[in-house]
Amino acid sequence: MAELKSHRIEKDSMGERQLPAEAYYGIQTLRATENFPISGLKPLPTYIDACVLIKKATAIANGELGCISSEISQAVVQAADEVLRGSLRDQFVVDVYQAGAGTSHHMNVNEVLANRALEILGDQKGNYKRVNPNDHVNYGQSTNDVIPTAIRIGGLLALEHSLYPALEGAIASLNQKADEFHDVIRSGRTHLQDAVPVRLGENFRAWGQILADHLTRIRTAAKDLTVLGLGGSAAGTGLNTHPQYRYRVAEILSELLGQPLQPAPHLMAAMQSMAPFVNVSGALRNLAQDCAKISHDLRLLDSGPKTGFKEIQLPPVQPGSSIMPGKYNPVMAEMTAMVCFQVMGYDAAIALAAQAGQLELNVMMPLIAYDLIHSIEILGNTLVALTEKCIQGITAKGDRCLAYAEGSLALVTALNPHIGYLNAAAVAKESLETGKSLRQIVLERELMNEAELAQVLDLEKMSLPPEV
């Protein structure tokens, strides 16, 4: 019985290296793992999907156009499909912080697909004379056009699978709470000081509208991701590609993603400029800023239970202290803020990376790829968790809300049209100094009669916009 080999030898332009026999990655991936032991962070699954989808589409196109044999085309497509179904995920091993432009990760993908295609064809891993990572899997391609395309596709996948449904779910839950809390009147606060009465339901409806507006902005920004520079090859000239390749591969990717994609009108421009990613990242940062603000509002409104606002009750999901018994903290809102801060940091990194390209290439694309896709996915995961474990379980402390609203000095604002700003200010000052109610002081000063005052200080009416 033949002895199983524990290793194989591969050769590249720099020489020979020994690899584990079971490894599907090859010599260039091995060199990258040795060169970049930086963070321990590996490529995101969505980014792997994006790269493999490109390889599947290019294998189909190049097979149809006669650039590679149908046998190799079919084997690469089968290998890609296996990876897309979850196979061989442990073979994508290059650190996020790696060679400029993403060549290391790109070759990792090429080598895994080539070696699995060899197995499918009944051959041995490493026999690159039959299926070569560069000559076949990467035919007509370059890191320089594949990686910016992968960032686009990865972004689109993450948006469709994660962020869009998460936003839609959060918006629906906020609007549901808006209806539930419509009749709860609370004191508004500006500058963290008493303000005129508002309805708790309208606070939630406002948050829902804010998120809906962000969803629209992000969808608009994401349209830039549908224009592909794939086919530009090394420098945007399309060197070593079939004349129909860029059109056909865009059609195939459109079918695979279920989204209308198109080749860029100028491939060199699409490969050089990171503006689409900066645009989407900016929209994500904008969303993160408002999500952080909403999370802060939830924490303030829930503060207490004895010494804070406590106008709402966030659902307790875990004990809040290792030393104080019975304490529950607004942990879902706290987590939300932390994720939002990370997304803002990623946006700054993306902006710096986007301007750091020179001439025909931006070499900082690996950073952009990770930070952009990760931003989308952690925001999506956060909104799902916040919705399910916080928003949906919020209850209102109606009596407390009403007590604050009735005791607010800002009610004096409604008196302005009837007694004038200076009289109203004097009434507010006396109320604060003496503890008397606004109603009592107005009547004592004979500024209004009882019936007029009751109509003006109607909290129900004050907390709604004027009727048309």
Which secondary structure elements does this structure contain, and how are they paired or packed?
Elements: E1 7-12, E2 15-20, H1 27-35, H2 45-64, H3 70-84, H4 103-120, H5 133-137, H6 143-180, E3 185-190, E4 193-199, H7 200-222, E5 227-228, H8 245-257, E6 262-263, H9 267-272, H10 275-302, E7 312-313, H11 331-354, H12 365-389, E8 395-396, H13 398-407, H14 416-419, H15 421-434, H16 438-444, H17 450-456, H18 459-462
Parallel strand pairs: 5-6
Antiparallel strand pairs: 1-2, 3-4, 7-8
The helix/strand class is mainly alpha
The CATH topology label of the largest domain is Fumarase C, Chain A, domain 2
Q: What does the average pLDDT come to?
A: 95
Globally, the shape reads: elongated
Quickly count the helices: 18
Secondary-structure element series: EEHHHHHHEEHEHEHHEHHEHHHHHH
Instruction: List the domain count as a whole number.
Output: 3
**What is the CA-based Rg, rounded?**
30 Å
- As residue ranges, the low-confidence spans are none
Tell me what portion of residues adopts beta-strand conformation. 5-15%
Number of strands: 8
Alpha carbon gap, first and last residue: 91 Å
CATH architecture of the largest domain: Up-down Bundle
Residue share in helices?
55-70%
Please identify the top-level CATH class of the largest domain. Mainly Alpha
Strand order of the largest sheet: 1-2
Describe the sheet with the most strands: 2 strands, antiparallel
CATH superfamily of the largest domain: Fumarase/aspartase (Central domain)
